[in-house]
Amino acid sequence: MNDFVGTGALVRLALRRDRILIPIWIVVFVMTAAGSAKATMDLYADPKALVDAARTSNASPALVSLYGRIFDESSLGEVSLFKLTAFGALLVGLLGGMLVVRHTRSEEESGRLELLSAGVLGRYAALASALIVSGATVIVLGLLTALSLMGSGLDTKGSFAFGLMWAAAGLSFAGVAAVTSQVTESARAANGLTAVVLGVAYVLRAIGDSSADGSTQWVSWLSPIGWSQQVRAYAGDRLAVLLVPLVFLAVLIAAATALIRRRDLGAGLVRPRPGPPRAAKSLRSPLALAWRLHRGSLLAWGFAFLLLGLLVGNIASNVDGFVTSDSAKEMVQKLGGVEGITDAFLATEMGMVGLLASAFGIQAALRLRSEETALRAEPLLATGVSRAQWLASHVLMALLGTGVLILVAGLGSGISSGASLGNMGRQVPRMLAASAVQLPAIWLVTALVVILFGLAPKLVTGGWALYGVFLLIGQFGEIFNLPQWMINLSPYGHTPRLPGGDFSVAPVLWLTAIAAALIVAGFASFRRRDIG
């Protein structure tokens, strides 16, 4: 039998399953790039202000570590998109990797691939179809991004270099996920390993950019994200560099196909370590089990949020130099909703941190559905554990986990900005308050996943789609002159802009009340439906 037979059918199935999620995420990425370009072009109409901003960015080790170096300080395109070069490549890489895991290891773990393999299905069909879907997604994303940047007024060659750079990052990490999906026996572990590789790649890129004399630049060439950055869109457009990630992808595909031949369907190369025959007393409750299931990802996310908070706080001391023109300061203050330019920057960045924390809340709440479809929930509910107890344990982990993450980020930014500005005693409580007010919006987005799980479990991944819509209209609604009623649909738009802005308790209470009502409705719906 042909090892690739059935690939086309699996591609059609995958596209049907992701017919909502993939278009929404493509739109989010495309609009993010176009919005960033349009906003920056409006801010830096003066060439001198553009160069001053680029030089200030390159002079800040924190900014260079977080976003990368600006190679051409006079390039409007590069300055407009420098925040999305390395960081955007990271996110596109995450999307490409998750799609591969979703349509390979997740299908094996759930048992669906075994049922399909009982028919006419080749050994490599699942991997081939997943790579086709993931590759097509990031390539379309890259091309549409290029067209949107051209529409924003940036030059053609640089726009295509930027879009293809994003696509190359997605392809690289699709290849990484193809390998990790063969190594582990669970989709969660495969995604975790892919995320680790992404993190290492980002750190290597940061190390390569960190030296002012370029002595460590060679380290960037060890990173797929560094390869994307070295394309230098709008600053040379070195398209030949794109051959490196393509060769990398080919090597990883060859490795993944070789690994498939060495394992059985459903098994991984690394066998999971068996646990003790009896659970410890600390695991004899639904909440303890939920903590055990979520603790690894929570600790990893917590470390990342602490580091992010420290970086954001450190950057705050350089904001006055970064935005030199009056129009730039006016725009940042408008986005931040506060008077001081430093507070405006911190408020805006804390809003972005809140968006990232929401992703953890969605992921944690989606664990409910994965436990159900993997048939681990039903045996548990056959014991003395009630549906409400089981559901509450995971929901509580999602809500408390997001609270821990956002407060850790607030603490880190308060310590770092306080040390930079020489007033830590004032900055720490201010940044903790700025982080705490993000929670109601985060919890509301998490609650939407809970009610989808209760009412329509097959549509629960729609939580990611709603998240993408909220992100799009919340971050770019004013830039694209969307009507106010549409902007108000995003819960993030009602969050008080702290530090420095006016605090109103009404939106905080309303968001919290809506989140609570959605969670209660989710509990009630789950009690009435069948498991499975």
From TrEMBL:
Keywords: Membrane, Transmembrane, Transmembrane helix
Transmembrane feature ranges: 20-37, 81-101, 121-147, 159-178, 190-208, 239-260, 298-316, 344-366, 395-416, 436-457, 464-487, 507-526
Protein name (database record): ABC transporter permease
Top-level taxonomy: Bacteria, Bacillati, Actinomycetota, Actinomycetes, Propionibacteriales
